[in-house]
From TrEMBL:
Its cofactor is Zn(2+). The lineage of its organism: Bacteria, Bacillati, Actinomycetota, Actinomycetes, Micrococcales. InterPro entries: DNA_glyclase_Znf_dom_DNA_BS, FPG_cat, FPG_N, H2TH_FPG, Ribosomal_uS13-like_H2TH, Znf_DNA_glyclase/AP_lyase, Znf_FPG/IleRS. Keywords: DNA damage, DNA repair, DNA-binding, Glycosidase, Hydrolase, Lyase, Metal-binding, Multifunctional enzyme, Zinc, Zinc-finger. Signal peptide: none annotated. This is Fpg/Nei family DNA glycosylase. Belongs to the FPG family. One of its GO terms (molecular function) is damaged DNA binding. One of its GO terms (biological process) is base-excision repair.
Length: 290
C-alpha cells in the first residue's frame, strides 16, 4: 500500500506536471471507485489545476477558480496506483477489462490514470468542494511531518489509550499517513517491540520513537523525491530494513528478521534490536500447533 512517503512523492510529481494545465476530460472506467455524485466528473472539464497536495495517504488535486475550487481527492488503498502519461491514450477503456479505474486528460494531451490491481476494489475517488467533506480526511490525526507532531503530542496520544504501539502508529485517526511497512521500519529504528503497550513507554522511549518516526519518513521522502511514479514502488522496497525481509539478516545486528502473521497482513521485526532477543509469538503458527 502506498504510504505517506510515496503519496508525498506522487503528489509532488503530479503537481509539477499539471502546473499551468487545465482539465480537458475525465473518464470514469470503474464506477465503484467514484464515491460522490456532485460535483460530477464532467464538472472538472475546463478548470485549471491550481495545485496538488496530500492529506495523510490521500492525494488532493485542486482545480480552480480560487473562489470556487473543486478537489479530486484519491485514496489508492492497498493495490491502487497513479500512472502518468505524456500522451494519454485516446482509446476508450472498457469497464471490467483492465485495472483502469479513472483517467484525467489535460489540455496538452498529457494526463494520468488511476489503476487498481486484484479483485478487492478499494480505490476511492471523491469530487468535493472541500476535502473536509470526506469523512476519512476530516477524521485524520496529526501529520507526522507537520510542526504539530511533537514529542508532547506523541506523549498525549500514547497516554490516551493503552494499546500496542504499532497500532498507534497505524491508526489514521491518531497519526496520519503511516501504514504497515513504515511502522515496522520506525519501530526497528526506535528499537521498540511492535507489541509494546503505549502506556509502558517512558519519556526516553517516546523521544526515541518520535526521532525514529521523523528519521524514517524524512529519509523515505528524500529517497522518493524526483523519481518518476514508475520507480517509487521499487525505491520503497529497497529502502526497507525489516519490512518484507523475514528470514534475512538484520542490517544493524545481523540477527534473522522474524515475522508475525495475521489474517490479512504481517509484521516484521528484529528480535535482537527490538525484543531483547526473544521471538514474538506467531499466531499463525500457534494455531497450527494446537
Amino acid at each position: 500500500m502506498p504510504e505517506l512517503p510515496e503519496v508525498e512523492a506522487l503528489s509532488r510529481f503530479l503537481g509539477e506536471r499539471t502546473a499551468g494545465r487545465a482539465v480537458a476530460g475525465v473518464e470514469v472506467v470503474a464506477i465503484s471507485a467514484l464515491k460522490t455524485f456532485s460535483p460530477a466528473p464532467e464538472d472538472l472539464v475546463g478548470r485549471p489545476v491550481l495545485d496538488v497536495g496530500r492529506h495523510g495517504k490521500w492525494i488532493d488535486l485542486r482545480t480552480g477558480p480560487e473562489a470556487a475550487p473543486v478537489h479530486l481527492v484519491t485514496h489508492l488503498s492497498r493495490a491502487g496506483w497513479l500512472r502518468w502519461y505524456d500522451e494519454l491514450p485516446t482509446t476508450p477503456a472498457r469497464p471490467g477489462r483492465s485495472a483502469l479505474a479513472l483517467r484525467v486528460r489535460l489540455d496538452d494531451g498529457s494526463g494520468f490514470a488511476l489503476t487498481e490491481a486484484g479483485t478487492r476494489k478499494r480505490l476511492a475517488v471523491h469530487l468535493v468542494t472541500d476535502p473536509g467533506e470526506v469523512a476519512a480526511i476530516a477524521s485524520l490525526g496529526v501529520d507526522p511531518l507537520g510542526p504539530e507532531f511533537t514529542v508532547e503530542r506523541l506523549t498525549e496520544l500514547a497516554a490516551a489509550r493503552n494499546q500496542q504501539v504499532k497500532g498507534l502508529l497505524r491508526d489514521q485517526s491518531q497519526i496520519a499517513g503511516i501504514g504497515n511497512a513504515y511502522s515496522d521500519e520506525i519501530l526497528h529504528t526506535a528499537r521498540t517491540s511492535p507489541f509494546a503497550l503505549t502506556r509502558s513507554l517512558d519519556r526516553t522511549d517516546l523521544e526515541r520513537l518520535h526521532t525514529a518516526t521523523l528519521e524514517v519518513l524524512r529519509q523515505a521522502v528524500e529517497a522518493s523525491a524526483g523519481r518518476p511514479a514508475t520507480e517509487l514502488k521499487d525505491a520503497k522496497r529497497r529502502g526497507m530494513h525489516v519490512h518484507g525481509r523475514a528470514g534475512e539478516a538484520c542490517p544493524v545486528c545481523g540477527d534473522t528478521v522474524r515475522e508475525v502473521a495475521f489474517a490479512d497482513r504481517s509484521l516484521q521485526y528484529c528480535p535482537t534490536c527490538q525484543t531483547g532477543g526473544k521471538p514474538l509469538a506467531d499466531r499463525r503458527m500457534s494455531r497450527l500447533l494446537r
